Structure formats: C-alpha cells, structure tokens
Amino acid sequence: MRKTQITIDVELDENHIPELMTWNAADGGVEKEETKAVMISVWDEKTSEALRIDLWTKDMPVDQMKMFMHQILVSLGNTYQRATGEEDVAQWIEQMAEEFAVKSAIKM
C-alpha cells in the first residue's frame, strides 16, 4: 500500500494565536506554501460526528475570510453532489452559498 502525507505547520505567538501557517503536500508538489486559513474536517465513525480544526492567522483580512467561507460553501455543494448524486440538495447548497455571498457583501 502506498502512503502520502499532507502536513500543516503552525507558528504561534505568545498568546497561542497562529501567526504563520505553511502546508506541504509532496505528491502535489507543494512545499512550505504559506496560507492564512485552514479548515479540516474528519469523520469520527465511532461517534458519528464531524471533528473540525479551524485556524486562521491573526492578519487574515476579513474580506478574504468571507471569500474563503463562500468558496467552501460552493465546494461543499459540489462534494455533496459527487458523494450522494443528489443534485437537488447540491443545488440548494449552491443557492445558500450565493445568498451568503450577497449577505456578506461579497456579491451584489
């Protein structure tokens, strides 16, 4: 069996707030690529719940965080459609993402 790794390195300030984050994915040719935000979800089969890690650096601009959240919502709809084949629910998620974009002033 082949193995691969994706890693995230987080440098914290004296108050344990992320100051610098980099990620690595050797198979994707990514090495020490800087990022301002990371969201990771994993499924815990034993407890049937999603476990999350949400991190962002203290200098992540709010407007970029809004765009990041919008793009996550859009990709969630795409992932849902691929995983379940339920096009109607995927379209509803996409509509919700567009409503978010309007309410958060990303789109008019």
TrEMBL record:
<protein>
    <submittedName>
        <fullName>Gliding motility protein GldC</fullName>
    </submittedName>
</protein>
<dbReference type="InterPro" id="IPR019854">
    <property type="entry name" value="Motility-assoc_prot_GldC"/>
</dbReference>
<dbReference type="Pfam" id="PF19937">
    <property type="entry name" value="GldC-like"/>
</dbReference>
